[in-house]
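In response to a reviewer's request, we include the raw inputs and outputs for one of the modeled complexes. The two entities were modeled together in a single run.
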Amino acid sequence: MPKLIETRDLVTNFYTYEGVVKALNKVGLVIERGTTFGLVGESGCGKSVTARSMMRVVQEPGRIEGGQVLFYPGEDGQEAVELLSQSEAYMQSLRGDQISMIFQEPNAALNPIMTIGDQVAESFLFHRKKEMCAKVLEDLKTADLPWPGLKKLLEFFYRRAAADPGDRLCCWASRTPILKRWQQRLFREARRRSVEIIAALDIANADQVVDRYPHNLSGGMKQRILIAMALACEPLLLIADEATSNLDVTIQAQILDLLRKLKKKSISSILLITHDLGVVAETCDRVGVMYAGSVCEVARVGELFRNPLHPYTRALLDAVPKFSVSGQLKSVEGNVPNLVDPPSGCRFHPRCPLRRKICAQRLPELALAGPDHLVACHLAGGRSGSAQVWGGR
Amino acid sequence: MPADMILQLKGLKKHYPILGGVLRKQINTVKALDGIDLDIYRGECLGLVGESGCGKTTTGKAVIRLHDPSEGSIFYYGKEHGAGRGVDITGLGRRALKKLGIRGKLQMVFQDPTTSLNPRMLIKNIIAEPIRAQNGLGARQMEKRVAELLYMVGLTKDHLLRYPHEFSGGQRQRIAVARAIATDPDFIVLDEPTSALDVSVQAQILNLLKSLQDSLQLTYLFVTHHLLVVKYVSNRTAVMYLGKIVELAPTADLFASPFHPYTHALLSGIPIPDVDHKPHRIVLAGDVPSPMNPPSGCRFHTRCPFAQEVCRRQEPVAAEAAPGRLVACHRWQDVPRLVRERFGK
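The model returned the following structure tokens for the whole complex.
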């Protein structure tokens, strides 16, 4: 599979009053085209910050301080664009168009004073203005207008806007009373597209839903609207940040079903950020496990669940209540470390049941421990024969 | 009536009025609980599951009289009142509850430890507060008792003089548990005690709750939306939908062979952390209807894949499907077969 996006040694710090929170410590991930990549970990381990750093939308007081984010827009995954060195204008044209994101809390992500239709249409108006103006121009040829002068005027505006969406004259006209009505057909087109995309997500009465406000909708519906907004411009990468964590089981089942269908239909890759290992097991192809700001294990989903090599992954899998197993749950002792002053060496070593001397001294690097299976652990390196260390599973 | 019953709910209802208009007249009611019958036995852990807004927490709060039910009654069978002699605590005031010594016997652990602990109180005072309210202890005894309680939940004496913000989420929940067991309760309502916690910490808290139940002979009402947690901790499980209990069964039986179609859907909707598991998912259409005007007949009929004419007209009564198993569905005998045929489970 060709690569789609890659992070190399990504470092993000947050400058708070308590000190520098080292949220990401050299995170390296590769997401391939057409796959679903799951990123799991406990809260505060840097899952969301990784995704936000990829899109360069880290909130204050956070700063991306090092590393690279390489984006491969081409089909073959050859030419790379280094996102961290691009201009903000370039990033704006990329966000929502080629990479888009579904945020965690649908209530917070939707604007309460805009109708659903306007919010979905926003991404069309921002990214697809040129294309839509050309479409309106085409429609104008056959349109029936009260007088010929109006048609000429509209064609004039739409021709200019279709040639250059940021045309100064058109922008001026959009702010001038009466004249600004030239955009009406553009808005109508955007609305038509919004209805289309909302209807594609199994929402009944899409043409009525677009005129409602977020508070009129239920949690599951809002989450669908967010997915619709994210998918509006057919992105190459969809980042779903805890997209189902706040939903009920039956609604979560609906949303996961929807994501699976969308995945089949379009080849867009999904980066699924979650703390629920069940969701990962069902939807992902590859999984990355994060702990305290660094990636500790990356593998194919089957491999990870059958043969976890990092002690943290093992502990995490043992701590989840399971359907078929009963008895005492194994818990991980201790708490997630404070990232202002992270532990030396391997960040998991204070909680690790198998720690050695070396773990406190040196940070293990991600190394290949099996086919397509990366682990950052001193004990589970490729050479040492990890199965013996763990006594098999 | 079994002698080991601790609490009994009979036709419990809780309706919240909605006021509107200029004169603030009542224009509607939210029927959060609409006739709950539930027996809770001494020493068990009863799980209460359902989607958000189905009335789980309202039940939990009503049971220990944190708010007054609109209708129905709650009987408490305390040890000190003699076996089989219940006290109707529905109409009792705060003073009466305290005088009969019932207040301290019914306790609660809330969902989010960050908001349920007062940020301006020391841990020592947080835990001592319920003891002070019930029966005063001398300062030295109190300190000893509080330290003992902290030790029971896995914290140490060093934590006494700290504030809640100095602790992590898991430790805060431990403090909340210590506060709940401070008055030697018989019965604790656990309202989503682990849903604000991470997986690895969740396991710690669940193990703690289990060991406390054994050592202190506690009875739990475990309210949660997380079905796998319920499977792990509870002996019996009640499934709620829109203010009603639709199914009640021993947990193992419920998970092995559910009767109600809603339970089927809930169980099949759990994402299983196991890659070899192939889900046969029953995806329910639509959302939970508003509890302001619940559907006629069976409340689940709008989303039920097997709804018939009778479901729309007539409300099902809870039938005893097997010893100790109640199910409120017109077609419960057919449901397992229908699910197998339709969803190939």
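As requested, we also summarize the result in words. Chain B touches chain A through 41 residues (CB under 8 Å). The longest helix of chain B spans residues 199-216.
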